[in-house]
Design a protein that fits this description.
Length: 308
């Protein structure tokens, strides 16, 4: 997958452009990507994703502490996995946010990219103060020679699929509902760092990831999970939190891979959360913590039998 950061020159034959922030690359985004691929095949064009970095809401409302379902690295992984060949990334600045919708279309879609077709999601808005809508986009498409297609609202179990709704479920700890909207298990990706080796001393070695501040996390607690390292899947039990019994300060995603003892320092892990087991808690002693972790492992194994 090639990532093009504007104003880098774009030279893509007959671009069919899907527009969005794609935070989470959830099921509605996946439909948008599928429409883009299909239209590109139909007109002998090239499917392209146009996205923005950083997230527009973090720029327009800098006081709003928006947590992202996917960091840029996680989003890029998902898009590549879904077969996306080109991603055009627009630097979203306060100056860019002031562009009138007509100028945005002319400068970005027409002059920079040369779009032949544009695919947008339901109720897509663009330009200064979100003044542009799909009707204006169609008018400008007739002027500049590109087609416009709007993907209908995507629903599951009468719930609108959106990044906002996914964030709500994950933040509340409703992993199952969040995963249902995502179309895949919510995950945390990062490089394993050295910890205090408390897990090894307990006979329960762990791999630690320090998530970035911008990353959305579920409530602190213990989760049954699947972990991917070096393209291999492993069952695991994961603690998300500050480990109040042994640390209490650093926010860590702490993973114990079941029935394996792997050397993981410096490796990239993807930790997929599947089931909430219990809230994080402080124990009166290290031995009581160890006993509870062993119970967590038993509970996780029962749940994860379906993935054997």
């Amino acid at each position: 997958m090639r990532i093009i950061d504007l104003p880098e020159k774009v030279n893509i034959p007959r671009p069919v452009v899907a527009i969005g922030t794609f935070d989470g690359v959830h099921r509605a985004h996946q439909t948008l990507i599928a429409w883009t691929r299909d239209k590109a095949i139909e007109i002998n064009g090239t499917p392209v994703l146009l996205t923005f970095h950083p997230h527009p809401r973090k720029v327009i409302n800098s006081d709003f502490d928006l947590k992202l379902i996917t960091t840029w690295e996680e989003k890029a992984f998902l898009l590549k996995y879904m077969g996306v060949r080109y991603v055009i990334r627009v630097p979203f600045t306060k100056e860019f946010a002031l562009l009138p919708p007509e100028d945005y279309v002319q400068q970005i879609l027409v002059e920079s990219i040369g779009a032949k077709a544009v695919i947008v999601g339901y109720n897509h808005r663009f330009g200064y103060r979100r003044q542009g809508d799909v009707n204006l986009l169609r008018q400008l498409g007739k002027l500049y020679g590109f087609e416009v297609y709007e993907v209908p609202r995507q629903m599951t179990d009468s719930i609108k699929i959106s990044s906002t709704q996914v964030r709500k479920y994950i933040a509340q700890g409703d992993i199952k509902k969040g995963n249902a909207l995502l179309g895949y298990p919510f995950f945390i990706m990062g490089t394993v760092v050295h910890g205090n080796k408390q897990g090894s001393r307990l006979g329960i070695p762990t791999a630690n990831i320090i998530p970035p501040d911008e990353k959305l996390l579920p409530p602190n607690g213990v989760y049954a999970s699947r972990v991917v390292v070096d393209d291999h899947y492993y069952n695991a039990v994961v603690n998300v939190g500050r480990r109040p019994t042994v640390d209490g300060s650093t926010l860590v995603v702490e993973t114990h891979i079941l029935d394996k003892n792997l050397e993981l320092y410096g490796k990239t892990l993807r930790v997929y959360l599947l089931e909430f087991l219990r809230p994080e808690q402080q124990f009166p002693s290290i031995e009581s913590l160890r006993k509870q972790i062993l119970e967590d492992i038993k509970t996780a194994k029962i749940f994860l039998e379906q993935f054997v």
